[in-house]
Amino acid sequence: MADETTGDHDRRSPDDRAAALAGLDAHGAAEGSHVPGGTRAVFGEGPLDPPVAFVGEQPGDHEDLERRPFVGPAGRLLDRALGEAGLAREDCYLTNAVKHFKYEMRGKRRIHQRPTAGEVRHYRWWLEGELDLVRPRLVVALGATALLALSGRVLPVLRSRGPAEWHGRPGWVTVHPSSILRTPAEVRPAAYAAFVRDLAAVRERAEALGEPR
Ligand code: URA
Question: Which DSSP state fits 172?
Answer without folding.
Answer: E
